[in-house]
Amino acid sequence: MNTRTETRFTPIDPDLYARAFQLLDPAPEPTAPALPAAPAKVSLTAVPPVRLPGPVEKTLTDALAFLDTHGWARGTLIHPEGARCSIGALRAAAGARNAAYCDAGNLLLDEARRQHGTKWQSIPSWNDSHTGVQVRSVWEAAIRRAHHLNI
Fold first, then answer.
1. Contacts of 110 (CB under 8 A, 6+ apart)
2. Distance between start and end Cα atoms, the chain
3. 151: number of CA atoms within 13 Å, CB side?
4. Contacts of 56 (CB under 8 A, 6+ apart)
C-alpha cells in the first residue's frame, strides 16, 4: 500500500519564527559586566559593651543625686524641708541597710579620711564638720573609686 499524505502547510521562514518568539519572550539586553558588590560598611572602631554600675556605685550615685535634688544638710539627719546629711542620703538611696548601703558608707568614709584626715570615725561627724563643696568632692571621688573598682 502506498500512502501519501499532503498537508498543504505553507513553508515558514525560520528567521520570522525566531523573531516572533523573541517578541513574546525577549532575552535580557546585554549589559556591562556587574561590578562586585561593595561590602557592607563595617565600623572598625570597637563598640564598648554597655557597662552597668555596680551596686555600690549605683547607691553612691543615687545618693548624690538625692542631695542634688533635695539639698544637703548639716547637723541633722533629715531637715524639715527635705534636705539630708550624707548618711541620710545613703539611706534614702539604698532603701534599706543592705550590703550596698554598708559598702557605700565604708567607701565614702574611707574617701573622707583620704581627703580630710584619718580622725573621722563616722560619716555624720565628718559631714557636719565640712562645707558643702568639701562634702561633694568626697562624694564624687568615692563614686569614681566605685566605678574604677567596678563595685
1. 142
2. 109
3. 17
4. 100, 103, 104, 107, 146, 149, 151
Long-range contact pairs involving 106-109 (C-beta distance under 8 Å, separation at least 24): 107/56, 107/60, 107/142, 107/145, 107/146, 107/151, 108/60, 108/138, 108/139, 108/142
Query: What pTM value is reported for the model?
Result: 0.66
pLDDT tens digits for 20-57?
Answer: 666 666 666 666 666 666 666 666 676 677 778 899 99
